[in-house]
Amino acid sequence: MSELFDAVDALVASRSPLPSVEERKRLRQAHGLTLDEVAAALKVRRATVSGWESTKKPTEPRGPEREAYARLLRQLAERYPAPTAAPESTAAPVPVTFTGTPAPAEQALSAGPASEAAAMTAHENTQTAPAPAAAPQAAPRPARTTRSTSTSRRPGAKKAAPAGTPTGGTDPRFENGPLAVVDVEDGQVLAYCPGGLVLDVPAKSIPALVEWTLKEALLGQPKLSGPGKDADPLLVLTEAALERYGLPTALTDEERLAGRLPEGHKVIKQLARAEWKLTKRGFGPWARIYRPAQGSERACVQLCIPSWHALDTRHWGEAGQLPPAELARVLGVYASRVMTPRGSTAVTGLELMTALHPATRASEPDADGKRHSEHNPGSLGKDPVDCAPCEAPDGHPLLKDLPRFHVRGPAEKLFEEAYDWARPMTDAECTLRHLVGIDVNMAFAAGANGLPVGLGAPTHVTNPAFDPKLPGSWLVDLSHVDLSKVKVGKEWVELDGSLLPSPFTPKGERPEGPAWYATPTVAYAVELGYEVRPVEAWVRRENGRYLDGWYNRLRDAYLATMADLGVDADLAPADFLAAMDGYKERDPELAIVVSAIKATVKGGLGKLRERPRGEGWRPGEPWRALSRPTWRPDIRAAVISRTRINLHRKIVKHAAFTGQYPVAILSDCVVYAADGTSPLDFLPYRDGKPLPGGFKLGINPGLVKHEGTQPVLWGEEVRERFNAPELNLARYIKDGTVTDADNGE
After folding, report:
1. 10 Å Cβ neighbour count for 743?
2. CA of 436: how far to CAs of 572, 673, 690, 696, 702, in Å?
């Protein structure tokens, strides 16, 4: 009988009534919940919850998830009833300030598990109708308000925070968020936190500001992995705050070149008197102020100073010019989805790898019950390892015995780089009307996904049998691979090899003899149907998928932010192209976050082979980056190799099926000649389905978007003007602007 009752209960649960998708989203945001938090509670994917709230193609929960989701929404609806709009003629004016005892609704919220910041946002949401989901607006600058019971300032009459605006964290230690933008208004120092919360700052000096941040501000971010460390709080100082605390609003040319203030600056002396220390990079655009850790307790605050060019405009756009509340929103979204910035996007990308795979962990208790630090499996460890000689960049200490002006060739140097290739157009292509560029989303992130990389030092072997599962660098002759006849899947196909770039060189030239290649490149030669016989290799027998967590974190951040901009992952091709058209204008602040996420991918991978940065370095001497366990040029080479091979595989599939060949390739952008202006005019979609293994339109990493379209006559005119029949048109396809001849840099 109990089984029958259970079946009846399940049947009833499968039909639990749910509110509209707009109401579902309003209720979640009113309680300060993120999609990730709801997904974790219901044991489903984030994309699943996003689908339940989608206004374009909503999905409905089923089974036990539906009942649990309905229960969550019922409880939230009791706390946050739907707002009722008052008649415009009788609407009372909103007071500029709010003082006194919190309202009963606010008292009820503060007693719950949500943070104070989330509760404040939720209370405001009950007072104001939510903004339209189709076009989220920038968070308005909060009005100044006061509360007698804490240092927090609650924005008066502020609308619900826009999509993608994080509120306070669920960890009570960091309930005000990961960071704050410090500004001065009417003589009062204020700290603007993500989600609209504003704090009064009583500190009169930089040392006092650091003390306040660590003891009262409740800023920071929980660690991203079990053995890791919590993120230090980040303070962003506006020009007004710099003046208030005795710092220059801009660095002199000498200070800018040095990247720091001089050691004798009065603020640095203040910090020294208060027994605070600076890291080796000193007091610069990304200063770190700390005291040595006491046990597991860290005392460290990071400063970001936009007017000292901390936020590179190539990656952060005009973020440094935003008002404090808006800047807090941009950096808060990035911090909540990627991590609290630790420096440039490149530095943060590298730090994210370590945060997800810390070098050490606590051991099991010994006989005395004590734990010790031990190697964390799957990490790169705490000590650097030497690269193989072929992987070393010019000037590396391993190459100090080479003649001074010796230029290493392919048989001496691993040269895995992204594509920069173009060819003259054929007569048939010149009869077409347009050149259409497609761009691979997050191409290098997709190349890192699932890629085995070495975790330890390399081992040298001679005449090895090639193993496609073994990360390493291989000296092998691939000049015999003929692109005119290759295997595509299990079948041999004939192609016009003269219209295809070689997959083995960045310039697309056919190899002329033995050369060093990363494992994915050699494996692709085997996939194309050709035998390979390496002469020697440097292999890494200790290996793993070190970058998987890094890829997942950045992919989720990218997809979540694009979804907030109206570009979902499940759109049909035509709908996707329409959604991508002008997506940055829907919310320019979130568009900045997208740019920063993409820069974090490329910059983080670039940091794996960081070169000397001045400091009196001479060829043959070590430089600072070599002391990092994350200085791993072999990992960078493997990711670039796999990214280039992934692109070539799609190009070959496309050519075999359609007879169309690319005109130009630059990194992750490919240009084809076509009769129409859209990628759909040459991509072989049938009934909405793409060519298996070929190019597919979509926002997920590895899928493609429209990069730009120009007339064929434009391409011919540009090449003729610069007398360059192989000018790489992919470099200029986006807007058609060509400022100078392509020098290949």
Report:
1. 5
2. 20, 6, 17, 15, 18
Q: Taking 70 as the threshold, does the pLDDT of residue 601 lie above it?
A: yes
* Residue 277, beta-bridge partner list: 290
pLDDT tens digits, 654-665: 999 999 999 999
Q: How many angstroms separate the CA atoms of 175 and 171, rounded?
A: 6
Q: What's the CA gap between 352 and 550, in Å, rounded?
A: 7
In the chain, what are the helix, strand and coil shares in percent, each to the nearest 5? Answer: 35, 15, 50
Cα Dmax for the chain: 88
Q: Which residues contact 584 (CB under 8 A, 6 or more apart)?
A: 565, 591, 594
Distance CA 645, CA 665 (A): 13
* Mean pLDDT (the chain, rounded): 86
Structural contact between residues 178 and 335, judged by C-beta atoms closer than 8 angstroms? yes
**CA gap 37, 18 in Å, rounded:** 19
Q: Tell if the pTM clears 0.85, that is, is over it.
A: no
Cα→Cα distances 420→506, 664, 703, Å: 6, 8, 20
Task: Write out the two tokens for 529.
Answer: 């149907």
Q: What does DSSP assign to residue 697?
A: B
d(CA 533, CA 66): 57
For residue 439, list its beta bridge partners. 669, 705
Residue 84 has a pLDDT of 58
Distances (CA, A) of 330 to 71, 311, 483: 33, 12, 47
Taking the C-alpha atoms of residue 431 and residue 674, their distance in angstroms, rounded to an integer, is 9
Strand segments, DSSP code E, in 532-668 are 536-539, 543-544, 664-666
Please answer whether residues 478 and 466 qualify as being in contact, where contact means their C-beta atoms are separated by less than 8 angstroms: no
pLDDT over 60 at 75, yes or no: yes
Do the strands 420-422 and 434-440 form a parallel or antiparallel pair, or are they unpaired? unpaired
Per-residue model confidence (pLDDT) at position 164: 61
Residue 255 has pLDDT above 60, yes or no: yes
The owner of tokens 């992934």 is 646
Distance separating alpha carbons of residues 495 and 719, to the nearest angstrom: 26
How are beta strands 669-674 and 664-666 bridged, if at all?
antiparallel
**CA-to-CA distance for 291 and 300, rounded, in angstroms?**
7
Phi-psi region of 354 (alpha: psi -120 to 50; beta: other; left: phi over 0): alpha
pLDDT tens digit sequence for 545-583: 999 999 999 999 999 999 999 999 999 999 999 999 999
Cβ atoms 523, 649 nearer than 8 A: no
Higher-confidence residue of 12 and 333: namely 333
Number of H helices, E strands in the chain: 23, 23
Phi, psi at residue 401, to the nearest 5°?
Answer: -90, -5
Distance of alpha carbon 281 from alpha carbon 288, whole angstroms: 9
Distance CA 171, CA 117 (A): 12
C-alpha 233, offset from chain centre = 20
428-433 long-range contacts (CB < 8 A, ≥24 apart) are 429/663, 429/673, 429/712, 430/673, 430/712, 430/716, 432/673, 432/674, 432/675, 432/712, 433/674, 433/675, 433/676, 433/711, 433/712
pLDDT tens profile 605-621: 999 999 998 778 999 99
CA distance 291 to 305: 21
Question: DSSP letter string over 490-528?
Answer: TEEEE--GGGS--TTSTT-PPP-SEEEEEHHHHHHHHHT
Q: What average pLDDT does the segment 391-396 reach?
A: 96
Q: Which of 53-62, 220-229, 719-728 has the lowest mean pLDDT?
A: 53-62
For residues 239 and 363, the model is more confident at 239
- Position 223 scores a pLDDT of 93
Residue 94 has pLDDT above 70, yes or no: no
